[in-house]
Amino acid sequence: MITDRQLLILQAIIDDFIRNAQPIGSRSLSKKEGIAFSSATIRNEMSDLEEFGFLEKTHTSSGRIPSEKGYRYYVDHLLAPQSLKTDDRRIIRSIFADRIYELEKIVQKSAKILSELTNYTSIVLGPKVKDNKLKKIQIISLSRETAIAIIITDTGHVENKVISLPPSFDMNEIEKMANILNDRLVGVPLAELRDKIYKEVAVLLSQHIHNYGTLVTSLAETLDISNPPKLFFGGKTNMLKQPEFHDIDKVSSLLSLIEQEQGLYEIMKQNPAGIHVKIGRENNNVLLEDCSLITATYSVGQQQVGTIAILGPTRMEYSRVISLLEFFSKDMTALLTKLYQNY
Amino acid sequence: MITDRQLLILQAIIDDFIRNAQPIGSRSLSKKEGIAFSSATIRNEMSDLEEFGFLEKTHTSSGRIPSEKGYRYYVDHLLAPQSLKTDDRRIIRSIFADRIYELEKIVQKSAKILSELTNYTSIVLGPKVKDNKLKKIQIISLSRETAIAIIITDTGHVENKVISLPPSFDMNEIEKMANILNDRLVGVPLAELRDKIYKEVAVLLSQHIHNYGTLVTSLAETLDISNPPKLFFGGKTNMLKQPEFHDIDKVSSLLSLIEQEQGLYEIMKQNPAGIHVKIGRENNNVLLEDCSLITATYSVGQQQVGTIAILGPTRMEYSRVISLLEFFSKDMTALLTKLYQNY
DNA sequence: GTTAGCACTCTGTCCTCTTGAGTGCTAATA
DNA sequence: TATTAGCACTCAAGAGGACAGAGTGCTAAC
């Protein structure tokens, strides 16, 4: 079994490594405050910890560094729940201080501030709109061939799409069309609009509008708001500041992954409520082998709407980042709930 | 005076350096096709070219590399107008092939494709909306305290803003308000909306609407669409592939510049029509000392609406990039003119 | 005016040596 | 029996030297 002293040493090593990014040896560790045993004793304990798989060596006579398993144990058992500095609280609160009504702007600003606070890369998966329900749809004619559909959802999200009109469409019929759409589609989740248009609206349109054939397809396809939630980033280049990423090739492929978005989206979207830590290879992605990803979710009322994550090296300040995200996610949820729940 | 043979040599050196990123010496140059003189002769000519300031050495016994002045001469006088490969044409045309009606999407896609085609970073300054004229404004109530203003411009650009309503605002007055706004503001350039609201609309609102005081401020401030045009990027990380940016610190500060946007925006916004090349320090920015920026503009009809740029190392394939941008800007202008001019 | 030849220079690479920080093992100690 | 001191050993990183390769500038010959 693992002893208390071993845990003390493990914790000291990981804390030190997170700070200095350097392998740490028995002698320097023995000089640390709170460590009262000789370097020889520490060597023995380290050797045991290595056998358990919590530590690794970079070469035979180097100091030890934490292994993935070591970080995992540290995160699961050794993390002292650190309370946030008032400064940090204040800065996070400032995100929500301005009266901003657009969710996207809040999300964008959050990404920026979280990356500045942590010096890592922040990724925010914006609110899922496709679960939102249609509140109102407006159609405004633009030219002979095009009109704009403005879609407003129950959470206050607004989206506009250009729809193309059939060649000989009568402008007077726009209002009729809008009425039909509102009549039938209000309250329908955005993801189901397309279906509903084909199934219910098409019939009605055929009764009231000339030339409805191509119009139905055009409507159904443009109102199909199944576009995945947007990803927002902050501090994309913060990775470059970390000593473990001073290798151009590593950093290059990592940044490509970030820029591509697709890969990260897959990772972000499957996120259960609460705070989760994925360390190194737990991310199931070669490019993220040396990274850890800490995710948190935010909600409107009880409904979880988005995910926020911090991406850093495995040698990440877990404690601080977790506290930040906890605080942030609580505040964000509170704000969103207040703003949008009663629509 | 500079002789024809010197120009031939200068051109050969620059072409070679653009390809291989290695200083080039007299002997290897003498082996090149089209160069019929001995290495000694070339050495003499190179020495002259260096005296003129067109070439540099990295150290006393190294081969030569082009100086900024060398590139400048090359771009101004030696560039053979290269015609585009049909492949490239096809790919650029494909941007405009889909029936996309939203300008932003076209711009975004352009940035992506141009960066893929060149392997450099592309930057597109989106259309200036503030010169657009208001075509229609719609107001849709959202909650007790908020409503959405939808602003449509003569170029088909749509923007929505949340406006906050005074506490005891009567919902029935929304339509009245919208009518007043439309009546007074249609045809007004977006940049002047704010002014016009204070000067003309305020009076009218005071006559027809209770509680108009805070409403006017709220309207004026939210409808103030002086937000600068957006910047779109493609291939932000392409810089990392260039051998001259294999230095982390250099690349890090350059990417920060790109991520900040502000600096680049300043550079992009002041752009006269046509294609322009800025080499190294001509960019007036320490971080861009080793970069060249080639910009082109695009228009709707006669009105120039945006700028597109390619950012690469000074050792850039000027000829190819210029051809690409020329072709692109012509096509883009043609498409936009067709789509939006007759609104 | 052009070219051949030669002495010289600088970079990059390879090798060796040395130092310092670390380890593991063994024997002495509390 | 658990801890510590001591010692031999290992490895990385840095310094210094030797050397090959690619280049230059200059001078003299063509």
UniProtKB/TrEMBL annotation, chains A, B:
Coiled-coil regions listed in the entry:
none
Q: What is this protein called?
A: Heat-inducible transcription repressor HrcA
Q: Which family does it belong to?
A: Belongs to the HrcA family.
Ranges of residues in domain Heat-inducible transcription repressor HrcA C-terminal: 104-322
Natural source organism: Peribacillus loiseleuriae
InterPro entries for the chain: GAF-like_dom_sf, HrcA, HrcA_C, WH-like_DNA-bd_sf, WH_DNA-bd_sf, WHTH_transcript_rep_HrcA_IDD
Q: Which superkingdom, per the lineage?
A: Bacteria
Its function, per the record, reads:
Negative regulator of class I heat shock genes (grpE-dnaK-dnaJ and groELS operons). Prevents heat-shock induction of these operons.
One Pfam match, given by its short name, reads: HrcA
Q: Which UniProt keywords apply?
A: Repressor, Stress response, Transcription, Transcription regulation
Q: Which PANTHER family match?
A: HEAT-INDUCIBLE TRANSCRIPTION REPRESSOR HRCA
Gene Ontology molecular-function annotations? DNA binding
GO biological-process terms attached to the record: negative regulation of DNA-templated transcription
